[in-house]
Amino acid sequence: MRGVVGLLAGVGKENFKLTMFRTLCHLAAPIIAFAFSPVAHADESTHRIEVGTKKLPMEGESILFDGHEAFVIAPETAAKGKPWVWYAPTLPRLPGSAENWLFERFLKAGVAIAGVDVGESYGSPEGRKIFEEFRVYLVSERGFAEKPCLLARSRGGLMLYSWATEHPEKVAGVAGIYPVCNIASYPGVAKAAGAYGLSPEALEAELAKHNPIDRLEPLAKAKVPILHLHGDKDRTVPLEANSGELAKRYRALGGPIELEVVKEGGHDMWKGWFQSEKMAAFVIERAKAGVGEE
Questions:
Q1: 108, 203, 225, 290: which has the fewest C-beta neighbours closer than 10 Å?
Q2: Which residues does UniProt call coiled coil (predicted)?
Q3: With 0-12 CB in 10 A as exposed, 13-18 as middle and 19+ as buried, what is 124?
Q4: 3-class SS at 177?
Q5: Chosen CATH of 49-289 out of 2.60.120.620, 3.40.190.120, 3.40.640.10, 3.40.50.1820
């Protein structure tokens, strides 16, 4: 302040106003620069979001999320709190037209569907990291509900369950269509090891740190509801080693689960897997529960 007074003392009356204006601009410049700098905008996205090329089975938005193909299929009118379903696996041909029946019911109820492609990650730490970043993006930048209902088809079970066991407080429910729950069963430790950046022997030694059936306690403590549809003749993802074992362990931990065993059901495209009224109702109810709307 003394410097300002000294500067103005030698100024003639005719230049007083001009000098005062210039002085105030000089003092305010750092504040103005900070206010409009990128650092000041904490809500600015830190992710690279571009238009994607993914082909969807119905009208929706294809996104390239940090280089990963992703999608959002939004309803014309979203339900309160923007509830959503997190679908996996998101791969070049998935979701496919088989999911349309379910998706149409979700949309009619005001529930969005979204997913991100993490490749054949088999639930690896890197895949889980991308999953969480994608969820944060949808919640913080798109206004989606904090807690989605998960919809796992086949090997999408490894992806979603591996993420969910680390974030039980962010899961409204889990629905599975013959989901993989056991790495040892599918794809097998030897095949999955590469996605984990480990040798088969190393992954075998620490399998319990990654395998969904061994990591259910956090979900059970959070009382996350689960519904699985699984066939008793599934040769690709055997019932007993996957949904059967998960259900047994989850119940033992006090978790709420319903396992609907389909007699003579295989790992196939039978429309009953994808046109289940029970599945549709469960997913919609849990997605809306994720925003406090039962």
A1: 108
A2: none
A3: buried
A4: strand
A5: 3.40.50.1820
